[in-house]
Design a protein that fits this description.
The protein contains 33 helices and 21 strands. By secondary structure, the chain is an alpha+beta fold. It has a seven-stranded mixed β-sheet with strand order 1-4-3-2-5-6-7, with helices on both faces. It comes from Durusdinium trenchii.
Length: about 850
Amino acid sequence: MASSEWEITLRHYRLLSSQPAFARQVLRCPHFPPTEETTERPRQRLRSQHSQRSSDAATHRWRELSSTLVLASLLSSCLSPQGEQELCVHWTLRAAGQTFKEGVSCLRRLMALRASAMSERWDLGRFKRITYDVLCQNTSARADRRRELHGGACLLHAGTPAQASRRAPVAGLAFADCIGPDPGHFQRRPLYPNQKCLVVLARCGGLSCGDIPGGEVAVLAHLRRLFQRTRRYHDIQGVELALLDHFQLDLSQIECEAKELARVLLGEIGKVDQAEFGAQLQLLVALLRRKNCRWWQLTPEQLKTMEEVLKRQKRAELFAEFDAWAHPEKFSEEEVLSHIHRCTVKGTSFAQILSSLEHWQLAARLDPSSALRCAVAWLRTRHAFAQAVVLFKHLELWRSEVHLDAFELEALLALQRLVRTDRRQLAAALAALHAAAGTPLGQPPRAWAWAAKAMSSGSKGPIHWPAWARTMEKGAGKVLGLGVPWRLIRSAREMEESLEVLSASSILGMDAEWAPDSSSGLAILQLATWEEVHIWDLQEGPPEAFGPLLQKLLGSNRARKLGFGFAISDWPRLSSLLGSDPSLLRLVDLERLEPTSSGLKGLVAKALGHKLDKTEQSSDWTARPLSEKQLQYAALDAHCLLQIMKALAPKEEDLKSLEVDLDQKRLQCVEETDAQLPGVELRVGQVEEVCGVPGSRSLSSCRVSLGHRSKQVVQGGHVLCLHQRVLVICNLRPRQLHGVTSEAGLLVAAASPGRAARRTARRAAARPPEAAQLGEAVDGERKYPLLDISSPENPWTRAARRLSTGHGLVLLDGRPLLCAGQPCQIDQEGGRFE
């Protein structure tokens, strides 16, 4: 099209788009009714509204047609590459509309224009690209175009069954247009759309052979044309295989064309330049594996040529698949049965097991339970998902409802892992599940693609599917929510009413919050029952009221109190608010009931299968008013303790053995009179490994052996070397430092206190005596709870005040610290411990 004609086309489109009245006149549409609605009767008003809707629909149809005409003009225009790309993108978005049906309608309009005279100057390559772009604008194919595999064979298009039923009629007509002949003149080159359009139409439209005019006969005829057209190695595409899988067609229905194609390709593959091998090689193997070697009637020379090509390419996995297909007798019957019973496969022998299993026909000799266990084990192996589906289908385990339900649940969990980790394997897994459409595993409502899309985008999934509902109930990847109301307690009257409710409960969940960068007291105290959570605001409430009320509640023997590290971190702060003689009776620390290295968050994941959102933990709890998110987080922190105890279901005698009574005496940690460092578990260790912490200049990570166990320690400064003996503080609460978990601490002394610059102070680790054994404790075998060093008053802080150095020794209260009857030493004269 000349530049003047192009400008005229654009001018006409702008005119028709901005002047709806003129567009309706061109289309012979009725005009708008009178605008004076006040003079109309009700029946006339309804008639005018109907006429206006008809006019708007006609205008919309005209805009669709005019935008398609402008898009068609780009097929023969002479534009610069940059200008062409910008205009194509703009008009493709305009013409494709906003729904899949509108994109299909635009595709059909472009296909119909092939019969007009304007198509004589169209460029075939541009026509193929624009037809595919128009169709993919409003489907998941648009996002997946960057991840196209094997020429479009493994595109993922997820849609609900209801969407597919609505799309099927128009998609079937467009499919028939795409596989039909070109209605244009024979003087020009035939114009046909991109063949990947057929895959998009079939999958997004949820097409079956019955939805296409001509039915299965028309689809098979088109596949025969594609197979006959492919006469060179470079012509292999994934479209043929994708259509065979989608419509559940067998190669036996096009046997002559398939065998002739295999003969031509295998004869040419030895002549292809090695640098030109790509995805076509994998597609050729996938085509051959659809039937056994006897069906193809291939000669040994052809098989040998293919093996040599795969070896030269160093495609180990692909060679293993081809070798298993060509030599199914490589595994004996006993070896196949042994592999399935052990559920373990080494290397890439999954395909060999399946091939040998089918060759020896061992399905009747396998126990269904053992076979199901093997299939589930394969599902959990990332690159064996497709083989697990084939195994489950081949052994017909789907005939048992119990086995089918169990396999579906595990398959959904495996899909969830693939969505997060491996998009390429996800496409192969969905293709394998779709190929099982002849069984209940692949039939509605088992919408695997829909489920995978919901997992990746967080949208609503197929809740009508029982396996999906059970997966969601297990909380895989879900964040724990609060299912009970909470109340904010501020005034003295509200505290008295709250005390009456809490005193009637037999069990309470307790937690507290304070400013992380402050050494002040508590900001709020959360007390949870099964029905609701009470949040006491200790900053706004009157101290003369909440102190006695809290002491009355906490000092009562009626209710059992649940906490997580409460005695170490929360109780020292809370006790200062309760008067001169504070006490907390019947406290059960869930950290001792179920030890975990990742705190409350790890315990929630382990016991409840949910994630605990700790975003608000480091927020400012002293600022007022508290936000809704802060209060929601605080209430959940206390209520989740009740949920954890219910999920763990401990015995009553175990709970009674864990109950402790805290008072002023226990607060001062005077537990044993003969203890050197009460509350601190100090043991002898030896450094096994030292390395720097990524992202930090001064921290180093080391693995310290304690005899029967080991601890990972993150330490500031490079004070350690291999095989060095150290003293390890073993009961520190684990914490994350630059992404590395520090599970313990070291007894390290800084240089003399007279130095002002602490960062540059020289540090030295304490050395236990040579007579002390690895793992030996300084204070003897005593059980101490985990220490929270963020608490302003904790056992380590009190112990560090008593430690010092002098004359090359570690001193406790001015006397040498003994271990195994001998003093502990240090490589400096004087300093302080950290």
